[in-house]
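Sample entry (380 residues):
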Amino acid sequence: MVETRQGPVRMIAETVARGSGHGRFAVGDFATEPSRLAPLAGLYRLRTPPRPEGLIFLDTETTGLAGGAGTLPFLVGLAWIEGGDLRVEQLFLDHPRHEPALVAHLRERLSAFDHVVTYNGRAFDIPLLQNRFVLHRTPWPPLDASLDLLTGARRLHRRHLADRSLASIERNVLGFFREDDVPGAEIPGIYHRFLFTGTTERLAGVIRHNAWDVVAMAALLGLHARLLSTSPADHELDPAVDLALGELRYATGELDAAAGSLARAVARCERSGAPPAPGAVWADALLWLARAHRRRGRHDEAAACWRRILAALPDHGAAHLALAKYHEHRSRRWEEAERHARAAAAAGAEDAGAAERRAARLAASRLTVTSNRPAVPRRS
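Predicted structure, serialized as tokens:
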């Protein structure tokens, strides 16, 4: 029990060695090279680049998911770098009357950091805690609450994971499998039984579940920082992650790095032997790679990407349309442009009106070129 100005609150604390793995990735990897964190500002749209010592990870367990004044956060898990290792601290309410003490201690702890790191916390944990602070007339500490790892998970893992919950990311990305975990849906009932009957059955499992959550967030942030570094090392994740990295780097104007990520996605898909399909990672990576080549002025290399797609997927509308534009504006091969334009229209890559205008424009250009050719003299 820790005494605060508002009374006692129970604390569970442990230190996890920086090099300890949570699955395949170390929990303290985010703090190994501080410069690696700079690209996270773009991924998470932060006002200032994060510092390892300025980050605190946070997750709550509550009496329900509805939010509002009736929802009580009875367990708050925190983690931060201290003395080179990951310090994990959990604040537990033996009784709701101790909540003022939890709020007071939590404010003091959070005030020492720049960014609070959560997973879907911007929508749930942070508003919930801010409401509890208001109820206890306690000002929310002046820290940035925008580093929500769900944002990065949606951008980097959306193509290969339909379920992007923290538990799914933990299994499929970090490679950590929980044993004897308490399902989140059962946690409110376990706490209610503790309050009304005093039984501690399964309560240790709830505390372990919360500790795993904050440790998983530390490992995931380190992985995202590593992925956004310029190292070409293979991270052994799904090729869709390379595609997502290429898209992100393209959006930020890092065209060489984008091309490297996209080419790696293409190569890894081809090594896997997966059959190409429209909308699959292989085809989409080639489309993005062609965009990167085109923005760098490498139009012939872009055309080569579109031809690679059509060699495997002859009815790929986007590739046909791109080649129609290439031949119209670059190679001036009007017949080729017309052929690809017709194929793009048949595949629905353009609306009917635009396709008709393109076909008419190309036909006119072809006829103009033909009529301007010098006549070949006949032999007498």
